[in-house]
Amino acid sequence: MNTDNLIANVLEGIEDVKGVDINILDLRKIDNVACKYFIVCTGNSSTQVNAITNSIKKCVSKSMAEKPWHVEGLENCKWVLMDYVDVVVHIFNEETRDHYKIEELWEEATSTLVKTKY
């Protein structure tokens, strides 16, 4: 699987349903990590978190014929994790993202904020 293409498709899926505060964390220079990148974003409600998840699945499946290896958190849609092996996507509602501060936990990673079109 081409990681750059996967990231582009994940970003497209997020932007298609207006996910916000998109941050790409490059973990490749950190020892003993399970993946190469985290993509973190926020939805304004559990409905939007679910919509972002479905949009990412659709974009990646349509363009690359790939499915996530694992998805969890759909029960309450406060924090959905989508594992594409090299890329793990974290889709939060605002309150949960503020609480867990995942970017601070991985502050050694190179962070790239994505400017959205809206």
| Sequence of strands across the biggest β-sheet | 3-4-5-2-1-6
Strand content: 25-35%
What is the quaternary state of this protein? single chain
The CATH superfamily name is: Beta Polymerase, domain 2
What is the CATH fold-level name?
Answer: Beta Polymerase, domain 2
Write the CATH architecture name: 2-Layer Sandwich
C-alpha termini separation: 29 Å
CATH class: Alpha Beta
Shape: globular
Q: How would you characterize the largest beta sheet? A: 6 strands, mixed
Estimate the helix proportion, in percent: 25-40%
Mean pLDDT figure: 96
Number of domains: 1
Number of helical segments with 4 or more residues: 4
Total beta strands: 6
What would you call the structural class? Answer: alpha+beta
Quickly list its features:
single chain, about 120 residues, alpha+beta, Beta Polymerase, domain 2, 6-stranded mixed β-sheet, 4 helices, about 35% helix, globular
Structure description:
There is one protein chain. This protein is α+β, with helices and mostly antiparallel strands and 118 residues long. The chain has a single domain (3-113), classed as Beta Polymerase, domain 2, CATH 3.30.460. 37% of the residues lie in helices and 28% in strands. The protein contains four helices and six strands, in the order αββαβββααβ. It has helices at 3-16, 46-64, 94-100, 102-105; strands at 20-26, 37-43, 70-72, 79-83, 87-93, 110-113. A six-stranded mixed β-sheet has the order 3-4-5-2-1-6. The longest helix has 19 residues, at 46-64. The model has no long low-confidence stretch (mean pLDDT 96).
